[in-house]
Amino acid sequence: xxxxxxxxxxxxGAYSRAFFDEIIERELERAKxxxxxxxxxxxxxxxxxxxxxxxxxATVDGVVRTVANTLQANLRLTDFLFRWExxxxxxxxxxxxxxxxxxxxxxxGETFQPWREGKGPVAxxxxxxxxxATLTGNRVxxxxxxxxxxxxxDASGEVPAIRV
Length: 164
Known about the structure:
The protein has 5 helices and 6 strands, in the order E-H-E-H-H-E-E-H-E-H-E. It has helices at residues 17-34, 48-54, 57-73, 98-116, 141-153, and strands at 15-16, 38-45, 80-85, 88-94, 128-135, 161-163. The mean pLDDT is 88. It has a 6-stranded mixed sheet with strand order 1-3-4-2-5-6, sandwiched between helices. By secondary structure, it is an alpha/beta fold. It has a single domain (7-163), classed as Alpha-Beta Plaits (2-Layer Sandwich), CATH 3.30.70. The chain is globular and about 45 Å long.
């Protein structure tokens, strides 16, 4: 059992990665039992290491909180948002099929577009990329997770990616 203090990431307010480990089995079983889809959305803050080196801690914390709030505002109440790594958030999208994921990734691309132009929480260009994958058939969840993360980290273009 995870300690209540570790359920939320203190910098972002999103659920912690440790909490993901607590709930994923339950959500996978529920999705299987109710025959609903489960998808993963990965959101990556590009050039994060250089940003952290160049900015003050309060600015970095503010950006982390703003990203989390922006993502949470674009999720449903049934979805879960996690701070996965320093430069990555992960959302577990319950009952979201591939089309819903495509729409979500496109909307996030539009939401974060002004940030790429320096019109975000800091007065400098800041890139946020999103990618998603959907659990289908007999696919192993760990593979879906890796596909979503790879889609978000794919730097081949500015368009957010979906992996199936």
